[in-house]
Amino acid sequence: xxxxxITGGTGYIGSHTVVEFQNAGFEVVVIxxxxxxQVEVLxxxxxxxxxxxxxxxxxxxxxxxxEKVFSIHSDAVAIVHFAAYKAVGExxxxxxxxxxxxxxxxxxxxxxxxxxxIPGLVFSSSCTVYGQPEVLPVTETSPVVKPESPxxxxxxxxxxxxxxxxxxxxxxxxxxxxxxxxxxxxxxSEIGELPLGVPNNLLPFITQTAIGLRQKxxxxxxxxxxxxxxxxxxxxxxxxxxxxxxIAVQRLINDKQVNxxxxxxxxxxxxxxxxxxxxxxxxxxxxxxxxxxxxxxAGDVEKVWGDTTKANNxxxxxxxxSLDETVKSAWNWEKKLRGKL
Length: 341
Ligand code: NAD
Ligand code: WQD
Prior knowledge:
There is one protein chain. It is built from eleven helices and 13 strands. It has helices at 12-23, 41-49, 63-72, 88-93, 95-116, 150-168, 202-210, 238-253, 274-285, 309-315, 323-337; strands at 3-7, 27-32, 54-57, 78-81, 120-126, 173-179, 181-183, 217-220, 232-233, 235-237, 262-266, 272-273, 291-294. The protein has a domain at 3-182 and 236-266: Rossmann fold (3-Layer(aba) Sandwich), CATH 3.40.50. A seven-stranded parallel sheet has the order 3-2-1-4-5-6-11, sandwiched between helices. A two-stranded parallel ribbon has the order 7-10. The protein has a two-stranded parallel sheet with strand order 8-13. Helix 6 (150-168) links the parallel strand 5 and strand 6. By secondary structure, it is of the alpha/beta class. Helix 1 crosses helix 8 (238-253) and helix 7 (202-210) packs across helix 11 (323-337). It binds nicotinamide-adenine-dinucleotide (NAD) and UDP-4-deoxy-4-formamido-beta-L-arabinopyranose (WQD).
């Protein structure tokens, strides 16, 4: 059985990914410092798969702690590295906290891979590296720009750190996955997104409003150059996204890479506006959403969606779950959280 280390494995995308690796027969080791997640997530994982992953509460940005954890798991075949801070607005206020956590974490992971001869890395990058693309849909060869936020910049710099490390050491093999907007929850409602405080992201704000935790959703801007005037994103189901990581690791361990690193967009290939997401929510759940159109949010791009042909053809991966089903899974998760399912 192949052993895989998943950093950030109690987080939103990480927890869904742990489940998919366990389903695929991997032995999973989770490293997370619980700075943005809860240890009870492991119960949810165990309720789905019947397997509790080995868990280390440890900080990836702490070199000594990583030295200890990796000495126990030097037999891992690959690392899936999610652990990072991700709040765009907070990163503008506290840039050094973001650079320190996200970049030191990656550097420690790469150092431990070298030291322990662990060859494979799958890295969580983001469509934020494309900024506002001039041509849509955006492909992996579209220009990478300096992102608007320090958070986004940590993703751009991380990609560069990985590329430079590979140039110097071809033993390291990496796949960079550029996610678009992950939404939804596991169909079992055992795991899902757990935003701390007031959510920044659209879907948790919608479900918290519908359940009565927030008064109304503010739709940020209706004067964009889009068919209905609201901004467009590529919303990708979190379980579909999780599955892409398993395929990426299998590609690494089976030596199937044609470039090193390889980069893939992971999205649906389709853009949806904020109003379309609201309609999907109302249609799929039968709930009415209280919302109001307001000013644009600073830093938002107008529209972005991904060309996923490369992931479809080369990884053999494709988004499968429909938007309505995905949005409904987020609603079921919200109800479960509030004891209403
Ligand atoms: P999340 O906050 O739910 O998960 C990240 C996990 O990493 C959390 O459990 C947190 O406790 C942990 N963590 C943070 N810093 C750590 C550290 N120093 N040591 C150990 N653990 C640490 O976020 P997510 O939405 O699951 O995102 C996972 C990854 O995907 C992140 O790298 C994020 O930047 C990237 N990403 C997320 C999105 C998105 O919209 N959710 C989009 C693109 C890329
Ligand atoms: C989606 C759309 C908002 C909340 C962020 C990061 C990006 C990536 C994904 C990590 C936008 C609108 C939102 C609300 C609204 N993360 N909206 N009312 O901004 O596309 O991307 O998460 O890498 O880097 O920037 O996602 O969910 O915040 O917003 O109208 O209360 O919903 O304006 O058009 P975003 P989001």
